[in-house]
Amino acid sequence: MTAARLPEGRPDVARRESETAGRENRTEKLQVKIGGMSCSFCVASITKALGRMDGVQAASVNLAHEEAQVEFDPTRITSTQLKETLLDLGYTVRDASKVRTFEEEAAELRGERNNLLFAAALTAVSLSTMVLMWLELLPMAQLRPLLLWLMPTIALSAIFGPGWHVLTMAWASLRRGILNQHVLLEFGAFAGLIGGSLGYLFPAFSGPDFFAVAVFITTYHLLSGYTSLRVRTRASQAVRQLLALVPPTARIVRDGREEELPIEQVQVEDLVRVRPGESIPVDGQVVEGASGVDESLVTGESIPEEKTAGDQVIGGSVNQTGTLLIRVSRIGEESFLQQVARHVEEARALKPGILALADRVLAIYVPTVLAFASAAILTWTVGTWLVVGSPDFTRAVFAALAVLVMGYPCALGMATPLAMIRGGGAAAERGILMRSAEAFQVLKDVRKVVLDKTGTITRGKPAVVGVEGLFGHSQGEALRLAAAAESASEHPLGRAIVAAAESRRLAVPAATGFQAMPGRGVGATVEGHRVAVGKPDFIASLGISLATVREQIEAMQAAANTVVAVAVDGEPVALIAIADQVKADAFEAIQRLRATGLEPVMLTGDNERTARAVAARVGITEYRAEVLPRDKAAAIRELQRQGHRVVMVGDGINDAPALMQADVGVAIGAGSDIAIESADVVLIGERLGAVVDAFQIGRASYAKTVQNLTLAFVFNGIGVPLGATGLVHPIWAMVAMVASVSAVLTNSFAGRVLPRPRRETARSCSRRP
For this structure, is 392 an active site residue? Predict the structure, then answer.
């Protein structure tokens, strides 16, 4: 390596040039949480304000997670300046790494609710007064002086009271040349104030009507903001409640003594004892004891999982029947539930097609509305003066105000986020984390679902699925002796045999003279008998003939089982079938996928015989066997080249490239960390049926988005040109605006995101082939 030479006589110049070159292309990232956003207009306004700042290279804002990530050159702008800009726009800023407490979220909701209630009270007074006036139930002659002061007081109270924050945000945006929903609201509100004030001078203007318009649109703006905040808060809390499952302390066993310590002081490899009825405080592996563990709040499964030595447990699940001694495997940020929280907090929603379309429309929407309002004024003043010789100032004001009111874009801005946020919240409640907004959009077009076999369709853990006694020997006795011989073995198949004996409550005797032949089998003396357990060829190598049971062995192997033979004192006594068991809900999940219009495809590295047997067992007709880990992504690309939108479902490290390659990657939450990091959707737990739930939620959310956009475009698209004609009184424009926002809100919350759970699950599973 050659060192760079400094120019002779000018080392200071060279040093400065070197430092300058080192500063070039420097990029830092600022990630912050933003409070106060309510719709897509807020996202567009923040993105535009940050993007215009010198030194900002890229800015992305996510409404659902209330986050902004900014890439900037620290030599030209600082993170403090970026935060000050957000604060100046009227939003709140907090550290992205800190999750807000429920109390903080509740306080924010209370503040928004109180503002809304105050504005609603003013609206109620205004509305009741207007109705009584229209029905001529008020003695106008006596009350006119009072109304002249009451209505403007109510309007000013609404705009400068609960609406003050919106007014400051509108001014901050306007002086930066940003036209958004806050600016348009204030144009409409102040137009109402001007129209009402003109009522003092010109009888043609109904002052109370114009003041009422200012109150109504301010209140509805606050309502839309409160509703959006409430939906986002509930969606966030649905996921973060997972973290509350973990108890604050753990009972540590050290040097034979138990000591209760704060969870923060627990270390990896510590031993933690959990008694019946207690929540498991850590992720770890059971080293002693057996118990049923309720993982329903984590996995969605209602049936407790039986946990014995060697099984993994997740912090937050509830120990039910027995005492467990658990060796800690992950703590703090590495624990499963903490990872879930981090995925949600760090998720970066991509901007899919329909969102991009809405944003493109919103970018020109406010200038268009203001242009319509200006055109209406010019048409009914200059235009009528040129045509009939006199301007119609009254109609000009009516038309401009009607355009501003009917063009109020809250419904349009709320249409897409509300549908997706609600879908994300519903998914979280079902143990499904939608890490990317793109997943909502793409799922509707998917027709191929690729499923990895091990850990996805199957449990990913060998288990005894059958024992066949030979020559009159009983299954139980053979399994008892085999478990005794395998009790000292660390091989997964040996552990499966021991676990099977323990699950059947067989008395497993002690063994002596243990010998292991790696990869082949074991031998030991049990109750005075020499017992050999292993592959059929291992048993045959000991001089024990298996010729008479060859057909049984081949039949077991044809059913995708690994066959282990057991011999006692030189005679074969049993054949044990061991397999990676198919998940209990796999068959039903595959049938539900087909009913949804999706074609399942299975990928596996196993041989053709095993792949065919597992596929037949769960009802899959298309599968690919002997697929190497590096070829899984290639298999996904091949399907994509055929014109298919593809979903990949996997759980292992070797699935990560395929998960990333797929249009939507779905990771089983009990799988590897890298698989979870590579996926767009994470299923908490091992329930395969959650894949179908994710599809239904995604499609329902997309359909709701389309419905909301259609409703908003119909109201705003028709209302603005109609208002410009001057034929629509501002009061009726206000009614149309209220109807627009109400329709979007009602549609967003109407109906169920998922169909009601089916009650035939057990029967369906029992009918598996």
Answer: no
